[in-house]
Amino acid sequence: MRPGDRDRARATAPALRPDRSADRAKAESAAVHPHPHPSPRARLDLPRVKRARWLPEYDPEAFGRLSERIARFLGTGRFIVWMTVVIIVWVVWNTSVPGHLRFDSYPFIFLTLVLSLQASYAAPLILLAQNRQDDRDRVNLEQDRKQNERSIADTEYLTREIAGLRMGLGEVATRDWIRSEFEELVKELEQRRVFPAESEEGDR
Q1: Around Cβ 83, how many Cβ atoms within 10 Å?
Q2: Close Cβ partners of 93 (under 8 Å, ≥ 6 residues apart)
Q3: Which of 3, 55, 133, 178 lies 20 to 30 Å (CA to CA) from residue 192?
Q4: Is 177 helix (H, G, I), strand (E, B) or coil?
Q5: CA angle 192-193-198, nearest 5°?
Q6: How many alpha carbons fall within 13 Å on the CB side of residue 84?
Q7: CA-CA distance, 62 to 132, in Å (whole number)?
Q8: Among candidates 71, 79, 77, which has minimal Cα distance to 133?
Q9: Residues 6 or more apart from 106 whose CB is under 8 A from it?
Q10: Are 68 and 124 in contact (CB under 8 A)?
Q11: Please, what is the angle between helix 109-170 and helix 77-96, to 10°?
Q12: Interior CA angle at 149 toward 146 and 153, to 5°?
């Protein structure tokens, strides 16, 4: 092969090679976006499918009632008495029994941990019970307000009706007025009977 032909072949070789960079770009885009078309949207006339949850589900209403019961028990004298008895028995047992029978020696670290745990759970339960009570009070106040508004409206309506009846009765002849009119007529008739008799005697 002549030197001129060799140079000419080298010049035309890149044009005959396949474009590997374009194929590589297509492969990378296919790996990143395996589905070129987006998935269709869920239909709005169908209920949503529940997703899997890692946390356990619970009934808020049942949990709220349980918290109210616990809060009521924590606010009673029975709880204070039982807690005092338990603490006294705990301290006496761990100070008077032999060492191999003690499970919480002085300074009673386990007892402190138990009381701290009890307090840490009691505070949120009491707050939850208070929030539920506040919600009930708010609903009761709203119902009382609506009831008061209805009562005021009914009272105003009855007041207007009574005033209208009084105004109407003012133009109607009452029993006392009719009686007074009859009495005046009777007196007038008696006077008419008396005066003609006296006039006849005077003429004689």
Answers
A1: 13
A2: 101, 102
A3: 178
A4: helix
A5: 100
A6: 6
A7: 12
A8: 71
A9: 94, 95
A10: no
A11: 180
A12: 140
pTM: 0.45
Per-residue pLDDT of the chain (204 residues; tens, 9 = 90+): 455 555 555 555 444 444 455 556 555 555 544 444 444 556 777 777 777 777 777 777 887 888 888 888 888 888 889 999 999 998 888 888 887 888 877 888 888 898 899 888 888 888 888 888 888 899 999 999 999 999 999 999 999 988 888 777 766 667 777 888 888 888 888 887 765 555 555 555
Which burial class, exposed, middle or buried, applies to 66 when counting CB atoms under 10 A from its CB (0-12, 13-18, 19+)? middle
Which amino acid is residue 147, in one-letter code? Answer: Q
